[in-house]
Amino acid sequence: MTTGLHSDAVRALRDWSVADADQEQLRLDYLGHLAERPDGLWRACLPAHITASAVVVDPSAGRVLLTLHPKVGIWLQMGGHCEPGDRTLASAALREATEESGIQGLELLAVDGVPAPVKLDRHLVRCAGKDQPENTHLDVQYVALAPAGAEEQISEESLDLRWFDFDKLPELTDVSVRELVAIARKLTS
């Protein structure tokens, strides 16, 4: 049985127009996953499930907020698993960004008044535990705009939480995060 969140995820991915061939293939793969799996948004869906994330930016200061992830050991955007209370994929991303940043008043970047993804990223993780096989996160990534001068508050889900200048990302950041930050910078400049 599909949920409103499932229907929204299909709509968000179907309506998202992508110029990049690799991103288009991921978009089609994600839609195929959702067509085959009514449970495709939930953590229990293995070997893959949709996740939602948002890179938090303060465009007025030219900075991005990243979290040092305790399980992965690198700096990432805020994000995670969808929860039953999430009505839309965008609201899942916004909830995660708010919880992990401690910043109230975040707003997702919108296209024609509707929050829209900016990037997709498929990666292997061990979210079921160290002794469990890896599974795949099909991450749908958004940009969250922080109010000017916003101050972060670290949560228990992070080893560290810091603002970085767009041009001075930490060494322990992967290519995917660097690409996401570059997209966010371009869209908010």
Please outline the major beta sheet.
8 strands, mixed
In CATH, the architecture is: Alpha-Beta Complex
Helix content: 25-40%
Output the number of helix runs: 4
CATH homologous superfamily name? Nucleoside Triphosphate Pyrophosphohydrolase
Number of domains: 1
Question: What keywords describe this structure?
Answer:
189 residues; alpha+beta; NUDIX_hydrolase_dom; Nucleoside Triphosphate Pyrophosphohydrolase; globular; 8-stranded mixed β-sheet; 4 helices; two-stranded antiparallel ribbon
Word description of this protein:
This protein is α+β, with helices and mostly antiparallel strands. The N and C termini lie far apart (42 Å). It has helices at 4-15, 21-36, 89-101, 175-188; strands spanning 48-58, 63-68, 75-76, 78-81, 107-108, 110-111, 114-115, 119-125, 135-145, 160-165. The chain has one domain: Nucleoside Triphosphate Pyrophosphohydrolase (Alpha-Beta Complex), CATH 3.90.79.
Describe how the helices and strands are arranged.
Layout: H1 4-15, H2 21-36, E1 48-58, E2 63-68, E3 75-76, E4 78-81, H3 89-101, E5 107-108, E6 110-111, E7 114-115, E8 119-125, E9 135-145, E10 160-165, H4 175-188
Parallel strand pairs: 1-9
Antiparallel strand pairs: 1-2, 1-4, 2-3, 2-10, 5-9, 6-7, 8-9
Helix pairs in contact: 1-2
